[in-house]
Design a protein that fits this description.
The protein is of the alpha/beta class. The protein is about 40% helix and about 15% strand. The protein binds pyridoxal-5'-phosphate.
């Protein structure tokens, strides 16, 4: 097949698709001994699941299903949901937004594809623009989204070793603002900043001060700041540290229903100024006519009746916070005598381990673990745009801890056995 530039770029194999295929095969093999710590699936939180099933039953009882399945929404998505969400955001944060500041898409992933390619790539004047990730490592799902090559530039983090009270070996990535400013000053091709908060893969929640500084830089250079809030407040609210959510008309805030436990309903949300929202609507119209109606319809009543945020605070947050503590305790025990460091667990549901003196790369570790039916994600995939020669890039792995303790323990022990 003679593919176009687009066809070639998006049909060639890439690292993360290969990994996802591995994970998919492992899951469908139905091998009960598989230790699955890769992938980004949320856990099924029993009470939350029951609430969603009840909502579905309500929609059936109230004869809403025919309408949901039988009608297209507008290209920016379901109006009732957008209004409900705008009111919710105003109640929580007093941002003064309306439904005109909200667009939906078929998952955040699809929204990022639209946003990145709308803001960067080949411009009308012949120049090429790029997106800057101020803090590597960053969400691997961005890596292959650009229509042009080399769409992303990333900055290596500062690494802070944390002195914990109990001797737990932990570290935290911080934004190297000097390096960020240097790139922004020297490189006029940067057309947006983008950061995930909480960060997938590390569980980092960049501080309010860091967000504030990024916001000021974005304003100074007249470029938008994209904040990927897939795991953050107000839903699903998987944040275990003090952090406040900020929005203004220069911030493009991306949210999702996925990490509430609804990834199959493919609902991503963009909160932005109306110019951006209208633009997303036009791309949606051309690409998919209208985004999925099911996710928004399932959640609207919960938002209007102020039931969604209590569900997050009282069920989802404690569930993941407890899992995070279990993961930290296991890490402390299993790696106590090895030079292995844990990124401070501040949000989302991953732990990020740094094998500081490892003799094998994270890719080699991944391959060895795979042979034992243990699945993790090797960290180098997340260092988008960072040179291969930086050894730290090959010393980290991501582990999804939204699983049971026995499985996590087995996986961490298998890693330890390969490291000693
Ligand atoms: N952003 C981050 C940081 C993620 O981890 C994910 C999924 O894992 C997404 C965006 C995409 O989410 P979805 O397309 O399911 O809304």
């Amino acid at each position: 097949m003679n593919y176009s530039h687009f066809g070639r770029k998006f049909t060639q194999p890439n690292g993360i698709t290969q990994l996802m295929e591995d994970l998919g095969k492992a899951k469908s093999s139905n091998n009960p001994d598989i230790v699955m710590l890769g992938g980004g699936n949320p856990a099924s939180v029993p009470h939350v699941n029951t609430v969603f099933i009840n909502e579905l039953n309500c929609l059936v009882k109230n004869n809403k299903i025919t309408q949901i399945m039988g009608l297209y929404d507008g290209p920016t998505g379901n109006d009732e949901f957008r209004t409900a969400l705008a009111n919710q955001l105003n109640r929580e944060f007093a941002w003064g937004v309306t439904e005109q500041n909200i667009a939906l898409g078929n998952g955040s992933q699809a929204n990022f594809f639209v946003l990145f390619n709308m803001l960067a790539g080949k411009m009308n004047d012949g120049s090429t623009k790029r997106i800057l990730f101020p803090l590597a490592p960053e969400y691997v799902g961005y890596a292959d989204q650009g229509l042009t090559n080399d769409m992303f530039v990333a900055i290596k983090p500062d690494i802070e070793i944390i002195n914990t009270d109990n001797g737990s070996k932990q570290f935290k990535y911080l934004i190297d603002f000097k390096a960020v400013e240097k790139v922004l000053t020297a490189d006029s091709s940067i057309s947006a900043l983008c950061v995930s908060r909480p960060t997938n893969p590390t569980g980092n929640v960049i501080t309010d001060e860091e967000v504030n500084q990024l916001n000021l830089l974005a304003e100074q250079y007249n470029i938008p700041l994209i904040i990927d809030n897939a795991y953050g407040d107000p839903f699903p609210g998987c944040i275990y540290t003090d952090a406040n959510l900020t929005w203004n008309s220069n911030i493009i805030l991306c949210m999702s229903l996925s990490k509430l436990g609804l990834p199959g309903l493919r609902t991503g949300i963009v909160v932005a100024n109306n110019t951006v929202i209208k633009a997303i609507g036009r791309v949606n119209g051309a690409m998919v006519l209208a985004p999925n109606s099911f996710g928004p319809s399932l959640i609207t009543r919960l938002i209007n009746n102020d039931e969604l945020l209590p569900l997050c605070k009282n069920s989802i947050l404690p569930f993941y916070k407890n899992k995070a503590q279990v993961a930290i305790n296991l890490f402390d025990k299993i790696f106590a005598d090895l030079p292995v460091y844990l990124h401070k667990v501040e949000g989302a549901f991953f732990i990020w381990l740094w094998f500081k003196e490892s003799k094998i790369t994270s890719e080699q570790l991944y391959q060895k673990l795979k042979k034992q039916d243990v699945y993790i994600i090797p960290g180098h995939n997340f260092f988008i745009g960072i040179e291969d020669s930086w050894e730290h890039k090959h010393q980290c792995v991501r582990i999804n801890y939204a699983t049971d303790e026995a499985t996590l323990k087995k996986g961490l022990e298998a890693i330890r056995a390969l490291m000693t």
